[in-house]
Amino acid sequence: MGGCACATLLPSTLFLGMRNAAAVEAADKLDLTGKLHLADVALGLAKSGGASYADFRLCRYQTEYLEAKEHRLEESSIGLSAGFAVRVLLNGTWGYASSSLATEAEVTKAISSALEVARASQGLQLRKFVLEDVPVYQDRWDMPMKADPFLVPADEKINKLLAINEAALKAGANYATAAFAFVREEKFFASSRGSRIEQVRVRVMPETEVTVIDSGTGKFATRAGFAAPRGSGYDYILGYDFIGEATKAAEQAREKLAAKPVEPDDYDLVLDPTNLWLTIHESVGHPTELDRALGWEANFAGTTFCTPDKLGKLQYGSKLMNIVADRSQEGGLSTVGYDDDGVRSVGAEFPIIQDGLFVNYQMAIGQAQLIGKSMSNGCAFADSWGAFPIQRMPNVSLKPNPKTCSLDDLISGVRRGIYIMGNGSWSIDQQRHNFQFGGQLFYEIKNGKLGGMLRDVAYQGSTVEFWNSMDGIGDKSTYFLGGAPNCGKGQPEQTAPVSHGAVPARFRQVTVLNTGRKAAA
User: Fold this and answer.
1) Distance (Å, rounded) from C-alpha 470 to C-alpha 81?
2) Do 10 and 484 contact (CB within 8 A), yes or no?
3) Residues with Cβ < 8 Å from 93, sequence gap 6 or more?
4) What b/e sequence results for 181-197 when a residue is b if at least 16 CB atoms lie within 10 Å of its CB, and e otherwise?
5) Dist. CA 34–CA 52, nearest whole Å
6) How far is CA 371 from CA 132, 315, 341, 356, in A?
């Protein structure tokens, strides 16, 4: 079993360093007029070379990472990277090239290389690539935020991290780690059809973890923080109660040391949205990617059981299950004005699962026709200036119950079960059928009441059976936006940020394992 790289903190773009000072300087010198000129050069050369379509994408990335352990700053790094890419469609075959240096000479060379690649690839092309008629846009989109994290003094951010650790240590933690990661992504896109789009978005990614140790036995327990990464400014950091959570996390980690081990069996589960978002990602998000269904993608846990013959026919889950996809949700990591194919996000929202029925795939341009659809739904992303845009997840979320339903309401309907908070270790098979998920905190449920803490809990199931066992979900007051900044896919690997909204949900008779038990000799 395996999966996408969603369990660690940092996307690869956070390890940029100062890639090429000359490239960054060249990009920074370009105003909008300069960008438009380079785009015109690229697109004109592509057309004269016979391309039926071409696009030009200029990108600049700024990153910062700060990590504190206990009372000291452990790491501080910043990075800048810039470059451009050109994409041409020649006789139904893609050609692609990129360069870190945004100059007219490099653009000319890149177009020549892209056309050469397309010609050389003609014989390998099994099916001619046909693009749908994507609308033309001339626009600028800036992610709304109140405080740019890159304008906040470093010492202010470091002091915040140290204060979080101090709160955890005072509450009984033996070790404490806190980290902030920030990414600023600037993209300029131009297509031969006439689109000219500028976009700027920022990602804020906090992470905390506390560890407690039983000095008598040497056993330890950890509790990671629940603060999700966000498409936001530093105002998200200022508005989150990290101090309160660090204190509570230390207390809960200490409680985990004394918790009783779970008895393996089938239980009713109430999954907190801080846990459920990852289950959505792996068992719904990835299986409904069209490139996997077509067999184009088989990295990071394979293809998918969700083949095109099941579209509109498969009862993926219970009628309470409504999964929607968007790039317009406030705070979403995938939220952006336009995807990297130039498809507009507002108005491109779509259902994936509707009343439990599988109704839509995620698609990039050129894929829709293969399943009888007319248009892409805005699901293309490239993780760097040098990467080819591939089909990537938008924000994929479980819609809340339209009727009033609280967490207590869900728990009250359970005679014997477990309430699970936070995401932990996980695995899923090569067709996205069978999975296993852990968590951070586990509480026994007895006769509708929340009981003491358990440990060593993991639940496993089969995707369709699991989602069809869901018989209760929370209302909009219980909604939580989780997510990962570094979902891995493709070869060469690309990482993408993606958010998943969820509400607490109840699942009946799910198999629970004890992860602490040793195998029999």
Assistant:
1) 45
2) no
3) 118, 119, 121, 122, 125, 128, 129
4) bbbbbbbbbbbbbebbb
5) 24
6) 13, 19, 19, 20
d(CA 54, CA 453): 58
φ, ψ dihedrals at 422, nearest 5°: 75, 150
- Written as one string, the DSSP assignment of 168-187 is HHHTT-SEEEEEEEEEEEEE
Quick one: pLDDT at residue 4? 47
Q: What does the alpha-carbon distance between residue 140 and residue 233 come to, in Å, rounded to a whole number? A: 18
DSSP structure class, residue 520:
P
Cβ atoms of residues 259 and 452 within 8 Å: yes
Bridge partner list, 95: 88
Q: Do 208 and 245 contact (CB within 8 A), yes or no?
A: yes
DSSP string, 432-482: S-EEEE--SEEEEEETTEEEEEEESEEEEEEHHHHHHTEEEE-BGGG-EEE
Sorted by where each begins, the domain ranges of the chain are 12-258, 261-514
Taking only Cα atoms into account, the Rg of the chain, rounded to an integer number of angstroms, comes to 24
What are the pLDDT digits (tens) for 1-11?
A: 444 444 344 44
Share of the chain above pLDDT 90, in %: 87
Which DSSP letter does residue 160 get?
A: H
- Statement: the pTM of the whole predicted model exceeds 0.85: yes
DSSP 94-111: EEEEEESS-SHHHHHHHH
Return the H-helix or E-strand segment holding 28.
Answer: helix 21-29
Name 434's bridge partners. 462
Which one-letter amino acid corresponds to residue 368? A
* 183 close to 144: Cβ distance less than 8 angstroms: no
Q: Copy the structure tokens of residue 226.
A: 């629940």
* CATH number 1.10.10.10 is the correct assignment for the domain at 12-258: no
If you ran DSSP here, which 8-state letter would residue 384 be given? S
Alpha helices in 329-406 (DSSP H): none
- Tell me the three state secondary structure of residue 386: coil
Residue 223's H or E segment, with its range, is strand 220-224
Nearest to 170 by CA among 208, 210, 207: 210
Q: What is the DSSP letter of 55?
A: E
pLDDT digits (tens, 9 = 90+) for 59-92: 999 999 999 999 999 999 999 999 999 999 999 9
Residue 388 to residues 198, 385, 420, 521, Cα–Cα distance (Å): 18, 8, 38, 50
Of 325, 252, 336, which Cα lies nearest the Cα of 288?
325
